[in-house]
Amino acid sequence: MADTKTYDIAVIPGDGIGKEITPEAQAVMEKATEGVAQFNYTQFDLGADRYLRDGVILTDEILDEIKRNDAILLGAIGDPRVKAGVLERGLLLKMRFALDHYINLRPSKLYKGVTSPLAHPGEIDFVVVREGTEGLYVGAGGSAHAGTDQQIATEVSINSAAGVERTVRYAFDLAMKRRKHVTLVHKKNVLINAGDMWQRIVDKVAEEYPEVTHDYLHIDATTIFIVTDPGRFDVILTDNLFGDIITDEAGAVVGGVGYSASGNINASGKYPSMFEPIHGSAPDIAGKGIANPTAAIMSSAMLLHHLGLDDAAEKIERAVEADIEENGSTARSTHQVGQDILARLA
Amino acid sequence: MADTKTYDIAVIPGDGIGKEITPEAQAVMEKATEGVAQFNYTQFDLGADRYLRDGVILTDEILDEIKRNDAILLGAIGDPRVKAGVLERGLLLKMRFALDHYINLRPSKLYKGVTSPLAHPGEIDFVVVREGTEGLYVGAGGSAHAGTDQQIATEVSINSAAGVERTVRYAFDLAMKRRKHVTLVHKKNVLINAGDMWQRIVDKVAEEYPEVTHDYLHIDATTIFIVTDPGRFDVILTDNLFGDIITDEAGAVVGGVGYSASGNINASGKYPSMFEPIHGSAPDIAGKGIANPTAAIMSSAMLLHHLGLDDAAEKIERAVEADIEENGSTARSTHQVGQDILARLA
Ligand SMILES: CC(C)[C@H](C(=O)O)[C@@H](O)C(=O)O
Ligand SMILES: CC(C)[C@H](C(=O)O)[C@@H](O)C(=O)O
């Protein structure tokens, strides 16, 4: 028998359907690693319920506890009872920033058996490398005369050469393992300061990767190509906000964000990385047991890859692909999808 | 015979295919207004050729001449020989800002005869009201240690209550003439300063329009719905950057930006408004005489509406719709499309 390694995993089901899909993902990763790895899960009660109960969003003490884990499995954050931004910024973004999750990795793949809203989707298989700790997400805006007719509201995008360069390197490394093409997405004809810096660093790093080709697209043109020619993309490299936008659009063209996993990765290994579906907490269907746990399950596979448990991760990916191909268009409960995928791992 | 009124029109064909499509638009608006209006055109030689020839992008004197007109017909700006941003910011955005074009109006309609890339597009007929003079487009960014590994690049989005409110009012007025629904698009869970202000002002103005319903969507979710359920939208109200992004995506789902017109409108009437296709100068097909002039022709119809020449504008719209229905899928030269539409006006 192989040695079993033990990993500490922080589990944050969060809000809405997050609570329903996360247990399915845990069950699947448990099964896929039988005999290979063991997980000590610590459940963290964070999100809207906790906040409304005792006012806690995320304390430094909780953050320290989370940091002691090898990885984090997150469900979804956001609840209509809480003002927009409070939990997103206080919990989700706070973790991404405090744990230096500078790579937000989001694969988009059209699986066999999934119906794309596009008439002729062709093959879609690209990955978005979204910078995760800079840009407009730093929270550097403010208001003068708030709430009055004289209000001035600002939002400041802050970007550093070091922050961009580590992201660019990650994208080129990833491209080397794929079809060797990187597309930088920005809006450098308007955002000339940040845009020029991204382009300069891409051009510089690219010299070290002679096998990787690269091109550039404005964000607006990118939203067109994702609909008209998604097959052209291999690795898309972009900033925090543009990455947020195009990964949702990409999720839609591959048949719905219900299939799209993501990793918030601290590639330096200093802090635990966090894996979550790209979809939100879906308050409209929460509590009904009908949310699709596939994206959460695929997030657990990304988590396993990150821990170096590639065989187990690939087992999950194959099981998910087979499940989608057979049952993709069938309405099933959250738990049923989990069970069907589990059965394929047996 | 009806009185003919005379209007002064500034024509800026600009770059690439802009030069090929603009004459077709002029010919069509000329024909559609026969006996009703007369136009004195002043051609402005602006864009890459001019800039590369004598370094002029847009002087204050030229801007003053442009201001003396009743409206502006623009082709497209942007050329690969000129660094990205130079012409866009120095010419196109400079005009939008100097002429206080605070409404960037962009209808998206799926015409009969046009093939959408969506498998089941349904009926698509919405208008994006994009704020045109604020946000990340103000050019308020900068760099420290530019060009070095220590570079910090910022981009600042500046938004004023007055700037937002006039845009919000325009959107609600427009909704009253349409299906009476406004969707505010922003990212208020992250950009809380600007996002809160937009939402506050929408809620305030909405009280004066009891017949208009309104809702809110994050920009990322919006890119999903444009692909999965574009029929849900009537009037989309959003800021400068988000409007740039979703109108390109919307252009794609209605069969290509080749059909999408836009107005840069100074609704106060102080300065001339400017009408242009939402597509760019398309250097890849420039000079071949194959660019589709439909968006430019539809822009001339918007221009006529703006001057109050609604009958003539509607004649063009009907001719374009009939032309697309009959010939939408046929490859035709730029001039042929112009001629076919002209023939329908006879
Ligand atoms: C919830 C929100 C703050 C978040 C983001 O904007 O990053 C989400 O949309 C995502 O993409 O993970
Ligand atoms: C050319 C560019 C500056 C412009 C914009 O970003 O507004 C264009 O994309 C548009 O939408 O008109």
TrEMBL record, chains A, B:
Positions annotated to bind substrate: R96, R106, R130, D220
- Which keywords label this protein? Amino-acid biosynthesis, Branched-chain amino acid biosynthesis, Cytoplasm, Leucine biosynthesis, Magnesium, Manganese, Metal-binding, NAD, Oxidoreductase
The enzyme class is oxidoreductase
Role: Catalyzes the oxidation of 3-carboxy-2-hydroxy-4-methylpentanoate (3-isopropylmalate) to 3-carboxy-4-methyl-2-oxopentanoate. The product decarboxylates to 4-methyl-2 oxopentanoate.
- Domain Isopropylmalate dehydrogenase-like: where? 8-341
Q: What cofactors does the UniProt entry give for this protein?
A: Mg(2+); Mn(2+)
Q: Which SMART domains match?
A: Iso_dh
- Which species does this protein come from? Alloscardovia venturai
Protein family per UniProt: Belongs to the isocitrate and isopropylmalate dehydrogenases family. LeuB type 2 subfamily.
Quote the record's binding site residues for NAD(+).
G280, S281, A282, P283, D284, I285, A286, G287, K288, G289, I290, A291, N292
**Name of the protein described by the UniProt record:** 3-isopropylmalate dehydrogenase
**According to its UniProt record, where is this protein located?**
Cytoplasm
Positions that bind Mg(2+): D220, D244, D248
One Pfam family of this chain: Iso_dh
